[in-house]
Design goal:
- The complex is a heterotrimer of chains A (297), B (341) and C (408).
- By secondary structure, chain A is an all-alpha fold.
- In chain A, 77% of the residues lie in helices and 0% in strands.
- In chain B, strand 2 and strand 3 form a beta hairpin.
- Chain B is globular and about 90 Å long.
- Chain B is built from 15 helices and four strands.
- The longest helix of chain B has 33 residues.
- Helices cover 43% and strands 14% of the residues of chain C.
- The radius of gyration of chain C is 22 Å and the shape is globular.
- Classes of the chains: A mainly alpha (297), B mainly alpha (341), C alpha/beta (408).
- Chains B and C meet through strand 2, strand 3, helix 2 and helix 14 of B and helix 3, helix 4, strand 4, helix 15 and helix 16 of C.
- Strand 2 of chain B pairs antiparallel with strand 4 of chain C, so a sheet runs across the interface.
Chain lengths: 297, 341, 408
């Protein structure tokens, strides 16, 4: 991590410094503004936050003050968490994400390792096939699953959704892990094999200890995919097994009921909080992990 | 690695992909060359809360007999691929014969859904992909040049466009760009045009979708490139500095070549994702101005009468389109692979 | 809002106490349907039954999963809540069962007009009606000196007066979002002009005619008085415009009237002056330019007789007249026995009294609806002529109908 601030810290002229600060400042505003606006608005009434009369209402909140006597109300949060039991969706999301990340990484690591260590031509074609698989639009895949899942009574369960999410994100995981393993020198496991280890023993005792940065990064991307997924979870989960994103969509519904829209807004703000903690906790690993895999030889 | 151990290592992931991706692709291919049997229609009397009417319904008995005989439906070959909703070859040929000029031909072509969707999708793909690469690189260089302490917060805020659920992102953004929303009003003030509306004109809608696309995807390239910058070999950079390379030259001749494998990876994923653009079109209610193959699939599956063969055909066309787009990158990977082995 | 729901929930609990004796089921019940308050109320009634498991999956995506969910044997869903447009998909796939035996056994309390008969068999039980009709702001119209319009021509003239007097820049509203909503407005207006969608007795479309052109011209003329973003406005967005006081007249769904008249959701000025009218006619015709809709429930074919009976009983409890209290009654225009029309229902009743046309229950109507929603957009933006747009609709429909086997 620390060897790299070459371009930066050395003798930056004032003009360049200003330019960098200005650019990054602008980017931060562009990147964060919609979210901060949502955060602010989640404490208002719908009539103010989504005012069609004057956008200034979202800041001054005249309706909210008139109806509640204060400019900040927690109705949206109360409605989402207490009345609509958003916490159930949070638990479901946690379960889905945990198992998706674990399964995805386990089978992806094995596959990615094998692809990086075999020099036969079929490995190339396998990688390309995986890429073509990724081109398939997820809505078509999900529409195709529905009938067999209903017939075999697999529909609606968290397990089914976990397996589907793992499978359709496998091409991305495989590509990413494959490039990570390319970076780990082949001599490591070759020498272990010379010492009499089988391929699997070499993998277990030599590769696993050094692969973590890459695996953690891939895991984070798998996590984000599972966390944010709508196409699969909205179609394959029954009401009581819903995860957060389809739950939020159901607050909106086809006919938006007054107040329910604010449940959705509050729920989204709530749903972003764990991601904040996660990113803060793992940022070092994200960066170092990507570094390893990214620069493939 | 031996074939047998390779087989056991790859087995779990290959099984998952075979079952959940390859099999559906095969069934989609089969579906796309079949259509439902001709419906046997009968006149009936239907009654409801508002009285009785004579109407047409499907004769289930007669239709079931047809279905049982050939459960896949009627084999039609490539008919669906060539019909008006897809490649529309008859219509294109006719347009070509009737067109007075090349410009007129393209104007008429734009009337056919597939070509109109292609016009938008390709514009979107080929503006968003390079812009997000450049933008991501600039942010990565900028963040890398700043003080270490604040980097954690910078990274989190930079990731926000990618991690906030697109569902709500578009709900809030859709309001913001309304002509009475905060961004819409700002633009009206900026261009001194009180009637300016982003949602009413095709051109502005495209720009809006492209800006959203870049905004949403830039964090992905940023985080990948930022990571890449951390492994920049010091000695190469130092020797470039000793040779008197300017900052721009360092970026151009040292940093970009170093990041090249990463740029390829991000470009590959982004070309694919942008070609399948879908969520922003629905999120911004911009069906009137922009469409994509993925949106066609959504529309075919979401209607009151679902067009399964049509959706299957659009899916196959998506895969073919992505394959064509990725060919240059794939050829490059092939060369690398051969050079390596 | 929160208090209201609590009140509703406790009312349901109280009621289930009394309904317990009446509603005892012996089987599995699983409902799939759309997501809006009236359907929630019906599903809650079904859930109040004891003796068997009652589940409900109410979601905006219900049309994508109901056919698949009823195809398996036994079907995952024993009942689908549908409307007159969407029952067609279930009929086409043959996944719902005739209800004649169950109605004879348990459905004595149903009114004859609740029974949806197709080819002589009862296929669904309707419980609510809906239609689009005029809503206007009495205060704005009065200020402008405009009478509430009876025809679309009067509406246009009124809009011009309101704009010219500087009262509102965009006096008209409407759910004209490209796709389903816009196609629905075309359907209304085309029926108002006396048009026929298909050649009699066949699936061959015929809308490229004088009525079709007149319909498009009228939609275009109306849109000139609407917010320029009209092609992105669905019913939600249009209602929001109304509540913000930006619109003086619109053609809107009866089911949306409750929220428009709710003092919690808009300014006192808007709520007080929001007035419901009858649907308008167009082009000198006598048929109102609107369509009548019903929502109802069905029972799956691939389900055991015991489960089908349980489902029927549970759904009957969902629409039990005893449940029509002050909370449930304003949610919809109920077809249930004993329903007293609320002030929010007058528009739909007016539509029914004017002999408005029900939305056509044809196997291929949905295909035409989709084609309309996609292809008349160019005309609305002034990019092509009405004839060209209608020809495009016909071509798009024909391609889809051939694929589905309705045309050769």
């Amino acid at each position: 991590m620390s060897q790299s601030y070459s371009l930066s810290t050395k003798r930056q002229p004032m003009a360049l410094k200003l330019l960098i600060w200005g650019f990054i400042g602008l980017w931060l505003i562009i990147a964060a503004f919609p979210f901060l606006w949502t955060l602010w608005g989640s404490f208002k009434m719908e009539a103010d936050f989504f005012s069609k009369a004057d956008w200034f209402n979202a800041i001054l909140a005249p309706r909210t003050i008139e109806d509640h006597g204060t400019a900040f109300i927690g109705q949206g949060y109360e409605g989402a968490w207490v009345q609509e039991e958003f916490w159930k969706a949070v638990i479901n999301t946690a379960l889905v994400c945990f198992f998706v990340v674990c399964t995805s990484l386990t089978i992806g690591t094995l596959g990615g390792y094998a692809l990086s260590r075999s020099s036969y031509r079929y490995t190339f074609w396998l990688l390309i096939t995986a890429l073509i698989f990724r081109a398939m639009p997820p809505i078509t895949l999900v529409a195709g699953y529905l009938l067999p899942f209903f017939e075999w009574n697999l529909w609606g369960h968290l397990t089914t959704t976990v397996i589907v999410l793992v499978a359709i994100n496998q091409p991305f995981t495989l590509w990413m892990l494959h490039s990570f393993f390319q970076k780990i020198p082949k001599e490591l496991d070759e020498s272990a094999k010379v010492d009499g280890c089988t391929q699997f023993q070499a993998f277990r005792h030599v590769i696993i200890p050094v692969m973590w940065p890459g695996v953690i990064t891939t895991g984070l991307f798998s996590f984000l995919l599972a966390y944010n997924d709508f196409a699969v979870t909205s179609m394959l989960l029954s009401k009581e097994n819903q995860t957060m994103v389809p739950k939020i969509a159901s607050f909106l519904g086809t006919t938006q009921t007054e107040g329910n829209v604010m449940f959705a807004v509050s729920a989204v703000v709530s749903a972003t909080a764990p991601l904040f903690i996660l990113v803060m906790f793992f940022q070092r690993q994200i960066v170092s992990g990507l570094t390893q895999g990214a620069v493939k030889g | 690695m031996k074939h047998s151990s390779f087989f056991w290592f790859i087995l779990p992931t290959a099984t998952a992909m075979l079952l959940f991706i390859a099999l559906p692709i095969v069934s989609v291919l089969i579906q796309s060359v079949h259509t439902p049997h001709d419906a046997v229609l009968i006149e009936t009397e239907n009654c409801g809360p508002f009285g009785c009417t004579t109407a047409t319904t499907i004769d289930q008995e007669a239709t079931r007999a047809l279905r049982d005989e050939k459960p896949l439906g009627k084999f039609v070959g490539l008919e669906i691929y060539f019909d008006r909703g897809h490649l529309a070859i008859t219509e294109v040929a006719e347009t070509w014969r009737n067109a007075e000029s090349i410009g007129g031909f393209f104007a008429d072509l734009n009337n056919l859904p597939f070509y109109r969707a292609m016009a938008f999708t390709l514009t979107f793909t080929f503006t968003v992909t390079p812009l997000m690469l450049v933008f991501g690189l600039m942010i990565a260089l900028g963040v890398n040049a700043l003080h270490q302490r604040i980097k954690g917060v910078l990274i989190f805020f930079s990731l926000l466009p990618m991690i906030v659920s697109p569902l709500i992102g578009s709900l809030v953004l859709f309001w913001m760009i309304d002509s009475r929303g905060i961004l819409g009003s700002a633009l009206q003030w900026f261009f001194e045009d009180p009637d300016l509306s982003m949602k009413a004109s095709t051109g502005l809608t495209w720009i809006m979708l492209i800006v959203y696309g870049v905004w949403h995807a830039a964090p992905f390239s940023f985080i990948v490139f930022y990571a890449g910058l951390q492994t920049l070999p010091q000695d190469t950079l130092e020797s470039a500095q000793i040779d008197g390379a300017s900052r721009w030259q360092q970026v151009r001749y040292v940093i970009i070549p170093h990041l090249m494998p990463l740029i390829t990876f991000v470009a590959l994923m982004q070309l694919m994702d942008n070609f399948r653009v879908f969520e922003p079109i629905v999120g911004f209610n911009s069906e009137a101005h922009a469409a994509s193959l993925s949106w066609f699939i959504f529309n075919d599956l979401g209607g009151e009468t679902r067009l399964l063969s049509s959706a299957a055909t659009s899916s196959v066309l998506t895969i073919i389109g992505v394959s064509i787009l990725l060919t240059p990158v794939l050829i490059r990977t092939w060369r690398d692979f051969n050079a390596k082995s | 809002m929160f208090l209201k729901k609590v009140a509703l929930a406790s009312a349901a609990i109280l009621m289930s106490g009394s309904a317990m004796a009446a509603c005892k089921i012996d089987g599995r019940v699983s409902i799939v349907g759309n997501e809006f308050p009236a359907i929630h109320a019906v599903a809650d009634g079904a859930k109040a039954c004891s003796g068997g498991e009652v589940k409900a999956n109410l979601t905006a995506d219900h049309q994508k999963i109901n056919v698949a969910g009823m195809t398996g044997n036994p079907a995952e869903y024993t009942s689908a809540i549908i409307a007159n447009s969407s029952i067609v998909a279930l009929m086409n796939e043959d996944v719902i069962r005739p209800l004649d035996d169950l109605v004879a056994k348990h459905g004595k309390s149903l009114k004859p007009n609740q029974l949806i008969k197709i080819n002589g068999e009862i296929m669904a039980v309707a419980f609510m009606a809906n239609a689009q009709h005029l809503v206007y702001r009495a205060d704005v119209l009065e200020k402008a000196g405009v009478e509430p319009p009876k025809t679309y021509e009067e509406m246009l003239a009124g809009a011009k007066v309101i704009r010219d007097k500087g009262l509102l820049q965009y006096p008209l509203g409407g759910a004209y979002k490209a796709g389903w909503n816009l196609a629905q407005e075309f359907t209304n207006m085309y029926i108002g002009h006396g048009g026929e969608f298909f050649k009699p007795g066949s699936a061959e479309v015929s809308i490229n005619n004088a009525q079709g052109v007149a319909t498009l011209e009228m939609l275009k003329a109306l849109s000139e008085y609407m917010n320029p973003d009209f092609l992105t406005h669905d019913s939600n967005a249009t209602s929001a415009e109304w509540k913000a006081g930006n619109v003086a007249m619109m053609n809107m769904w009866g089911s949306r009237m409750g929220p428009l008249k709710d003092p919690e959701q808009s300014t006192a000025e808007v709520v007080a002056s929001t007035t419901l009218g009858a649907p308008m006619t167009v082009g000198g015709g006598s048929t109102p330019a609107t369509t009548l809709w019903w929502d109802g429930w069905t029972v799956a074919k691939n389900t055991s007789d015991a489960d089908a009976e349980a489902t029927f009983l549970a759904m009957m409890n969902g629409i039990n007249p005893d449940r029509l209290d002050d909370e449930m009654a304003p949610l919809a225009v109920w077809l249930i026995d004993g329903y007293e029309p609320t002030p929010a229902a007058v528009g739909v009743f007016a539509a029914a009294n004017m002999n408005a046309t029900p939305y056509p229950m044809l196997p291929y109507q949905g295909l035409l609806h989709t084609a309309l929603g996609a292809e008349i957009v160019d005309f609305m933006q002034g990019k092509e002529s009405a004839e060209k747009a209608l020809a495009d609709v016909e071509a798009a429909y024909t391609a889809a109908a051939r694929e589905k086997g309705f045309l050769n």
